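Protein modeling request. Please complete all fields; requests missing the sequence field cannot be processed.
Requester role: graduate student
Desired output: 3D structure, token encoding
Chains: 1
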Amino acid sequence: MEKKTFYSLDPETNETIQIEAVKDLHGLWKSVCFKCGSKKTMTIHPDSNYCYCSKCEVIATVNISNSDFTQEYPAIEIFKCHWKNYHGIGLIPFPALDKRPLVSWKDETTGEPIQPTPEDYKKWEKEYTYNNVWVLLGPNRIALDPDGPLAEEFVQSLNLPDCPISKSGGKSRHRFFRTDEPIEFLKVKFGDGDFLEVRTGPLGMLVPPSIHPVTKNTYQWEKDHSPWDISFPEFPKEAYETIKSRVPAPKMLKPCDEDKESDFRKLDVEKYLTEYGIEYSIKTKGNRMLYCLRQCLFTSEHGHGDVPGDAAITQELSGKLGYHCFHNSCFDKTWKEARQIISGDQPIFQFCEGYVPLSEESNLGACDETSTIPKSGHHFTLIKASDIVNTKEIEKEWIWEGILPAGGLSLVVAKPKVGKTTLALQLAVAVSRGDIFLGRKTRQANVVYLALEEHRDEVQKNLSKLGVTDEPLYIHFGPAPARAMEEVEPLIKETGAKFLVIDILQKFCRVKDLNDYSQVTRTLEPLMAVGRRLDCQISLTHHAGKKDREDGDDILGSTGLLGGVDTSIHIKKRNTDSRVFSTIQRYGTDIPPTVIALKDGCLVMEGSREEVEIHETMPLILEALGGGPLTEKEVGEQVERNRNLISKALRKLVEQKGIERAGSGKRGDPFRYSLLLYSHIYEESNREMKVEPNPLESGKNSSIDDFQKNEPPNREFNREIPIEKQAKEDPQKRDEKDPTQGGLYEVLDDGQLTY
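Delivered output (755 residues):
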């Protein structure tokens, strides 16, 4: 057998190790593991520069010489090769980046963990081959995670039964147990940076051989302490109670502690969080109400909805409030600090029980409670109608001619994966350049694009296809900050943006109930005000509902969404290659349903939906008439199109001399349509179709009307073709030079016609 010497670095001591390996019958290099001593369990992968032991799961770099070791960790198929092992012992594995799952692992409706399908795992094996393995513990598994020497010392004092133990890429030792009765997550602080977590339920852990995101060391099972060596023992109840007794009571504070707020009582947390755009869900825990936040207020990396209750505002029956986050850096944060992040120094007594705006007598509850009532008794500003009429009308400016006004608010609405982001991003690029987009001029301006759910690599590909170089286009990736609504104005001022795209509305505004008209209008009004005040068009992408509806009823949520914007752009799927685009506008003229398509990575307009459908129907009619003359009704029986569309296509073909019509069209004598024998005989010089230049390519000013007038490309049936005089004599007397040139029919020797 072939033998070879390799050299490796011990992951713990960083010392060079000599490995004597033998090539087996399968062509793999095998050796004794330098860590656990097991024979032929270590496989050396010289092409990928790493070795791996299937027994103790140690992973190390490897080389054919004893020098020049790279400190970069090798690319190892961690998820692909190991998820089945954990699935087989009752855990639910997911691919992970660093310590977080890369895929959604909760049901969007119920918030409960999902059970991946075999198809999911096949897909993940290909997409996340080299990623870490994160396992969902579930209600019947427990992991003790001590972080720090004091926490480890405490765990050792619990006299726990022998159990599977993994060493993290840092210094922690994770112990795994089972439980027949679900328990509560616990976290105990022993000192600065010294914590113990009892993880269970909807929480998870990285498992060997994943790579620690900081130290770059691998997670490893301790010798003879893997789940395949030791089954999960029952977690002792007395140990759980001992840990629970060390959990301190949360710091609960009154909602309002200023003198002017002291008379107000329990805070309406729902109303308060909704007002400031904080997304949350509600749970109860004993006599406390938990407002579980989608994202931690103090660190944006904590949350994103991955773990229910990851960060939460808690409220007792007495009305006292607290804040907790299970991450170490936020563990000691209080309600007072949380309030400062959410609303700053603004008073919050208007959200408390017992607050009455102004006075009941004044009936001016919608006014600012800190303002005084003028002598007139109201705050309305009135202008005489004649003064309005006599004022010179100011010509409206557009950021996208005739569709998006300069300064204001708009929606781009479509179902998922139909093209909201594609249109919004290409429009953003066009505005940053001042290019014509879909046949309409744009005003060149600075643009900000908030990509709240798009992957950076996908946006990069799209921008490269569009040839972006040094345009004033600024893009944000990742979730919106907790106080995003308040930061819109400083964002626009800093960048000088005149066009702001927010992709997508709910990820930014975090409206609790999109069907609640009052919540929706309260959310949109500040954005509209900022946009108009700073002359910036703010465009929000948003989902359409499941049902196909017209007149703006396809917008998911309250009618307040349509009523709260200047323009609503609607995109609907037509087929795999094209979409139908239309608008509903407060200013200008609504764009009727128009076909757009993605060609060479760029959106182009093909014409009105009706015109495109007529052009698509015409060749179907010609094919049907190939069997002989037909009435309109008979054409409709052979061509699967609606009657109105067939009528218009027939008239178009008659106008273009593509077919002829006979009959009076009266009862008993309907119109009959047939192909002209010689109608398409034309000279060689007229063979090429003459098409008006595309306004997008020519660069001239154009509008949707230009696209309706232009003939769509590659539609031969739409050509204006010279008509030669038809022979009234016997067909044999026609031009003998080329009797079939350009025609639809050919006369055979036996006098028969063929198509």
